[in-house]
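Hi C.,

You asked whether I'd gotten around to modeling the 423-residue construct. I have! Everything is below, sequence then structure, no commentary in between.
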Amino acid sequence: MSILHDKLVAQAEELRKRKTDLLKNHGDTVLSNVTIEQVLGGMRGVPALVCETSSVSADEGLRIRNIPILELTDLSPEETFWLLVTGDRATPTELAELRAVFAKHYKIPDHVVSTLKAMSKDSHPMAMLGVGLLAMEQDSEYRAAYDKGVGKDDLWKYSVNDAVRLIASIPGIAAAIYRIRFDKGDVIAPLENDNDMSNNFAHMLGVSNDASWKDLIRLYLVLHSDHEGGNVSAMTSYVVSSALSDPFYSVTAAMCGLAGPLHGLANQECLRFILEVKEQFGGVPSDEAIRDFAWERLKGGQVIPGYGHAVLRVTDPRFTAFHEFAQKHNITDENVQIVQRIFAVVPGVLVEQGKAKNPWPNVDAYSGSLLYSYGMTEFDFYTVMFGVSRAIGLCSQMVVKRMMNAPIVRPKSLTLAELESKS
């Protein structure tokens, strides 16, 4: 994609220079000590990755290219991708050209639809998403360029082409999965005279024609797009792409990580909890009833889904963005009311209990309830929605790492005996 290539050429040279200078002049600088607890605890908190696209701080939350996410809630997914991968806001000309290129890929190939239809009716939607992405891999420009002997300094240009195609195609794959897996009727073609990505995704899902539904899809794709480099899906895509696997392989691997209950699957678990509360109380319970219910769960060794985060120690700003969306569009169904009641009560309970490092809600506590409000009641599909958004950030991170010629990831592992000898 020439306009994006032109934008990134100088940046690629600068990134490589900065990396080379750091290695040459400061390569032996110690960043931190690694403890046995961190080795055994999933490398939690170990500063061992570079991520230029976004950062997450405990006391503020997500920043995209150093801009707080709450200042970016008016962006489109295309603008978000441009910002992530270039570090700049897209001009009207750049955005128009990017959308024109995206629009060429909104309609997914017939063989991809046939592949999805051939899968078992009991297939999990996330498994279908992985298969759909792999079915697109045969046309990877990145892999073709590598096979032709293109040098590492120029491979990033082909990762850009693959990234644009993947990001533009994944809404169509996801919408086809929704239509096929849940018997919603024929797969819906993209709009003929609208290049907007979120409008097309909302249209192809066939869930609602409400303008606010399209706005929710836009916001959803922006808020979930990136969350620095150490989460499961981002780390997985980084490791796979560091072997010079193309973006289709890398994002598919990341989706397998996103499907885990401790990562992307959490949004549907949160909604199950909301519905459980509604069923138990026959509607929206009082604050006192929620307080008692929360204590009952905690004393029974259960958690409050959607509360707590591995990094954050404040209310997730993405939760705040969804809360503001619900207020703006006057969404007041019982599920949303329960979300708001829980938000008013549960943090205080968790503080009183004294075990939670972070008593505040994360984005998963709200997102599923809003999708449910518009009629998307199929829980198993929610993580696919997350995946469509997260592909934007995954591809952006891959492009930037290829621009700087990042090496293959190969950390050192230790046996328990070796750890014991150091204790």
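If it helps when you're writing up: The first strand starts at residue 54 and ends at 57.

Thanks,
B.
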